[in-house]
Hints:
Layout: E1 15-20, H1 31-54, E2 59-64, H2 73-82, H3 88-93, E3 101-105, H4 116-123, E4 127-133, H5 135-148, E5 152-156, E6 160-161, H6 165-177, E7 182-184
Parallel strand pairs: 1-2, 1-4, 2-3, 4-5, 4-6, 5-7
Helix pairs in contact: 5-6
Amino acid sequence: MKHETIKLEEAKAKSALIVIDMISDFEFEDGEKLFQHALPAAKKIAKLKERAKSVNVPVIYVNDNYGKWQSDFRQLIEHCLKNDVRGRSIAEILMPNDDDFFILKPSYSGFFQTPLELLLHHLGIKNLIITGVAGNMCVQFTANDAYMRDYTIVIPKDTIASNSEAANQWALHIMEEVLKADIKDIEDIKLG
Length: 192
């Protein structure tokens, strides 16, 4: 994947689409519960990603390193695509393009101990469209850190998933009320 492909002047919208933890084998405790909600979200993210790319909005995959400090994002993709794992279909739906960006994170927030903030600054990004899993964990922690850094936050409610619908709705409520996130359907997201 090439980082040089998107240049600052191409990121016209000053927005970025953030995809959190969707490239995963989902082979972990409660992975089956999360997967059943993540698959429909992945299909919506794919549609939103297609729209974003059509207007040069950068796509940034922010993924857990699962404690494998010697792995990289390409190995994670390969693992999900070439093995008989639960998350294979999601990896196929959301296969990163060569011009997408990726960041591995060691913990819940996409900002904690990662170069995400530096990348966003380099691209001139002010608005984050945050998608992914789990809504009540990594999405919410990332949104919290984005709020603390004065980013405008948009959460397409049909593009995040948690282990249960109740947990997801609670996370959306907190992000809207506390973090002032703009919660909407993907059809209402304006890009470009």
